[in-house]
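Give me structure tokens for this 141-residue protein.
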Amino acid sequence: MLAGLVALLAVAALLVWGGVRYRDDIAGAWPQSATVYAALGIPVNAHGLTFTGVNYRRDTQAGQLVLTVEGNLVNIGARELAVPAVEVKLTDGRHRQVDRWTFTPTTNRLKPGEQIAFTTHRTNPPAEARHLEMTLAEAAD
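Here you go.
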């Protein structure tokens, strides 16, 4: 009886460990699970792609204000992934969207651990823009 209980607890612990350890793969295969992970406060990346080193600056070119956004898109997954379009949103001080645009990175596929640098520009962004958010415009395969 005790051995059976210990075995059951070991299997349950292994399932929990696997569910946390492989959460990104699970959420990629079963997107609805991302809501469960979020409810438990466990971060999950169902796409397998993430942004790193994102910086932005405002310059004046030919008399117009230009917002330049640069960074890297990194494949943190275990398989080669398609690179989707990227959406940039600008919000005001109350986090209300004031502008948005999409751009397509120069590479359409990334191998595991590979990254691609990107740069995008927006001429005359709204003056009330205070925050920048980047998301994947569509899911990668």
